Every structure is written in C-alpha cells, then in structure tokens.
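[job 0412] stage=complex_fold ligand=zinc ion status=START
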Amino acid sequence: MKYVHLCIITLWALLLTACSTPQIRFAPGEIPHPPPSTVEEIAAGEQVKSSFLKDIPLEEDPAYTKRVERVLRRLLAVTPSSGHWPTYVLDHDLWNAMTTTGNYIFVFRGLLDDLKKDDELAAVLAHEISHRLAKHHEKTSEEKWKSALRDLTTVAAGILVASSEHSTQRQVGEMMNTTHQVMSGLTTNPYSQTREREADLVGLFLMADAGYDPYASAKLWRDQAEKTGAVGVSSAFFSTHPPSSERSHFAFHHAELAEKRYKQAKRRGPPKLKPPRKRYEPTYKQEMLYKQAFDLHRGGQYEDALAKTKQLQRLAPRYDEATSLHAVNLAKVGKLAESEKLLKKLIMKNPHDSQARYNLACVSALRGKKEYALQHLDAAVDIDPGYGSFARDDPDFSSLENTPEFLSITKERSLPVEGERGRNTFTINNR
Ligand SMILES: [Zn+2]
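[job 0412] stage=complex_fold status=DONE, emitting structure tokens
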C-alpha cells in the first residue's frame, strides 16, 4: 500500500447532485453552529456503521484509537455543537476518513499510518467535523446511503487487490480509472467540490482554534499531490474532490488568516476539554417517587403512575430512568405521539440506549409507522441482541409479525433472552 494514496472521500460527496451555481456559503473564519442531529439522522448513521462493520473489522491496536480520541477531543472542545461523535478506527489500508449524519466518524488505519503528526491528523478530522457543522448530508435517502456504501466497499476492496505486491503501477492506474468512472456516475462534481472547499475552510479555523498549526493542512495536500503524481495517476481521481494541489493552495491562502487564531489559541493554552456528562443522581425523594410510579405501573394503574412520572419530569427532567418510564406510561394511556417525542429525546441524548430504541419501535408499530418500527427494532437488536427474542412475543408488533424483515430481525440475529431486559421495557398493548 506504499504508492496508493487517495484523497479523502466522504460518503456524502457521492450522493449530491448539482442544480445551482455552487458557492462557498461561509466567510473565512466563520464556524457554523447547526442544530443537534435528529433521531432519524442518528438512525441513518447507525445503519451505515453496522454495514461498515460487517465488511471491515475495527482496528484492535488501542494506540490508534487513543491517538484519534486525543486529537478529536481537542477539536470538539472548540466545536460549537453538543451531542455524541461516535468514532471508529477501521482496520484497513485505505487512506481515508469519512463522516455520516448523526456525527458518526470513521478513520481508516492506512491514513493514521501515513500521517505521523497530530497537526495533520487534526486537519483531516477538522475537515470531517466541518462537513457535519455545515450540514452537508441532510436530505439523503436511505437507498442512496446504501448504494454509496456498496460502491465505497467495492473501491476499498479494489484498492487492496491493486496495491498488493504483485500489481504493477499500470494495473493500479487502470483500477483507479474504473473506480473513477463509478464515482463520477454518482455525483455531479462542481457542487460536491464546493462542499469539500467549505469543509476545508471551516476545518482550517477549527483546527487553529484547537491549537493545531493550520499550515499542516496545506502541507498535507501538497504531500498528497506529490505522491499521487508519482504514480502517474491524476490526483483529481475522485472527481468529487478538488485536486490535492488545488486544495494545498486553497489551504495555504487561508492558513495565513487562520494563523492569527492559531497564535491566540496557543497563548490561551490547550482548550478546556468538555467533561464527560455525568449520570444524573436522583435525590432520595425522587427515587421514592420513581419506585411508587413503578409499582403503580406494574399494578396496571397507568393513570396514577403517569401522574407520578409527570411530577418527576417537572422535578428532575434529566433523570433518564424516570423519563423512560414516563414515556411508557404515556403510551399506555394512549398518548402515543407524546411518548414518541420523549423517546426520541432519550435517543438523541444517548444513541446507544437500546431500551429507548426498543420502546420507540413499539410505539411506532402501534402508530402504524411500520418502516420506522423495523428500523428502530433493528437498531435495538444490534445493540442488544436479546431484544430480538423479546420482540417475538411482544403483541405491540402484531402488525409486523409475518413480514420477512421482522422475521429476519427477530429470528436470525437474536440471542436467547438472558435475565430480565431493561426494567422499563414493557409491552404497551396488552392484548
Ligand atoms: Zn470531505
């Protein structure tokens, strides 16, 4: 894998189509401040992650993950966006990193092996974060994600074959040409190239604010231009991205502006890292209220239970266990829309909350949103396979029972239930 270096490609770049004159929407130095991801965006990202991890294993050497986390934490400390940034280092030679909706970030080992300096890695990660801040892939349908993913995996596999020891440089070039054609069919270039420049521009100032040298970005792309030039393949290989040499000039031009911010950041010292969010500690009174609500619920007195959890929502809105029980109580008394809203809030707070995912699947099924129900059930089973068997006997899913998707989620992939599932996983619709 010595002589194959690709520009960074991002999934979104394959998916856009041009329809208007592309223009950079941000002024140099401007860092957009987007609203948090929606639960649908997180679900789409989660799906891409699952598909990826089926084909490419996670890197096992913790040194790689630690390095990415170290750089990422500093960048996120100056990023004006809350929420989770689930990050995965993939064990693959590809020189690449990418991002999806829901702030999922993927970094390939090949990139980390090549970029020795943290400033260079920061340039790549800041670019990826900036795609998210600029909301570059919001209206992407699930089908498009899936097909882009298939293409990317094909490219990844092709590059591995071509870069094996026995391939000649000519073969590598031919393979690259073929994949180039695949890519150009998926995108109309000027639009996505503008988005790339936007991410480069925002990223430059983000890395400067985090105390990383913005000139590292120019150097990175200059090195790429030299390397890709060396094998006689155009560095504009992925037409979704501007050529490396052009990116280098672009970065160099704006690095002069960013340098001021970099120097300020250096004087301030390393950015204050955001402390990890602490689990909410309920007071004794709140805990007692929760217990009462729980017993009332188990006894089938849903209206009374609801009154208690409503009180808890007012007293302690960050008490997630109580919120979860409140959502189920709401569903029990038929307030499905309100319940759905609350469950979405829980998932946005913690995308790996399998119990909220499962309950949202139930509520969606009861509201007749079958596709949505399957999507969330799929995610819940992905996180905790025990939910598959649990769903099989859950009357909430009676409308889905005989669909092939439901059968595949609940039969093929689930493990036997061990012990009790989460305490607040209830069957909403008691037949
Ligand atoms: Zn990009």
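The chain has 17 helices and three strands.
[job 0412] exit 0
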